[in-house]
Write a structure and sequence with these properties.
Layout (H helix, E strand, L loop, with lengths): L2 H11 L2 E3 L5 E3 L9 E10 L2 E11 L4 E5 L6 H8 L7 E6 L2 E2 L5 H7 L1 E3 L12 H8 L8 H6 L2 H20 L15 H13 L5 E5 L7 H18 L2 E5 L3 H7 L2 E6 L2 E6 L1 H5 L2 H8 L6
Parallel strand pairs: 5-10, 5-11, 8-9, 9-10
Antiparallel strand pairs: 1-2, 3-4, 3-6, 6-7, 11-12
Helix pairs in contact: 4-6, 4-7
Length: 288
């Protein structure tokens, strides 16, 4: 399977190291604390265990993939990390800080941002206005200043405008700042959702099936944008994706989920050659 990808990944995988805790990260992140760590994380819905014993560690600038069959619990994991769901058991550490009891808004402010399987933009607002919404944690003026349009309000609005255009420019969208969001092509809407998430200044960005509905050229562009996010923003990226070319081509480490439990963790080459993964997700040889 994907022997050409195996060859491409060999050099980069020599930079992957195993930590005593069974976490694998890139050597460049060895002197930095883990940005995200989960310990014995799990959630039950009634009598059903949806996720159990989910243990991962993500390096400060790591690109990590979370893959598995439909219904394996991947989006549930993202909902746990962002506190859409409160875990039944276990611990989530963000830069070493326990997020227990935090709300989704508090977790976002602390440094976790995400996108969704289904694009969630403010369709009738402009591209720039959508990005400004992501800047809400960093706009500092009082309600009174906003109501009466005091100088402090205009000062912060100017900063927000400049920051929004700066972010849009990085992703080649500055010239679309005044365009209504719902008039953008599909790929550009995906890109805008990522830019809005980056506007919150996260420490880790969670991407839920970012390539869904994209054509091959849009997927290639997405791969470059994910690398750009890691390199220019210096943050970690964790993604759920069914496009194996994207996952194997961009992720440094991969965790495979099946029936709510991790069945394998490793580099792309290790995952591609793991018999459990081949049978549970990538497809056994007898099915080919």
């Amino acid at each position: 399977m994907m022997s050409d990808t195996n060859e491409k990944k060999t050099a980069s995988e020599s930079n992957i190291v195993n930590l005593p805790s069974d976490t694998i990260i890139n050597k460049r992140d060895m002197d930095k604390p883990l940005v995200l760590e989960t310990r014995h994380l799990g959630i039950d819905f009634g009598g059903l265990t949806a996720v159990d014993e989910f243990n991962i560690g993500v390096g400060a600038t790591e690109i990590m993939g979370l893959i598995g069959p439909n219904g394996a619990g991947k989006t549930t994991i993202f909902n746990l990390l962002t506190k859409v769901y409160q875990p039944t058991r276990g611990t989530i550490l963000l830069c070493g800080k326990d997020t227990h009891g935090m709300t989704p808004a508090a977790v976002n402010e602390a440094g976790i941002a995400r996108t969704f399987q289904n694009i969630r933009l403010f369709d009738k607002l402009t591209v720039e206005e959508n990005v400004k919404i992501g800047l809400h944690n960093h706009i500092n003026y009082s309600m009174m200043s906003g109501i009466f349009r005091l100088p402090s309000y205009w000062k912060e609005e100017k900063k927000a405008h400049e920051k929004a255009l700066e972010l849009l420019d990085i992703f080649g969208m500055a010239d679309q700042a005044d365009v209504q969001a719902d008039s953008l092509p599909y790929g550009a809407q995906r890109r805008l959702e990522i830019v809005r998430a980056l506007a919150t200044e996260p420490k880790i960005l969670l991407l839920d099936e970012p390539a869904a509905g994209m054509n091959p050229s849009e997927t290639e562009e997405l791969m470059e944008n994910i690398r750009k996010i890691r390199d220019e923003f210096g943050i970690a990226v964790m993604l759920i994706e069914h496009d194996m070319k994207l996952v194997m081509g961009i992720c440094e480490t991969i965790a495979v989920l099946n029936f709510g439990r991790i069945i394998a963790k490793g580099t792309p080459v290790e995952i591609q050659n793991n018999p459990q993964v081949i049978e549970a997700y990538l497809g056994s040889k007898k099915d080919e």
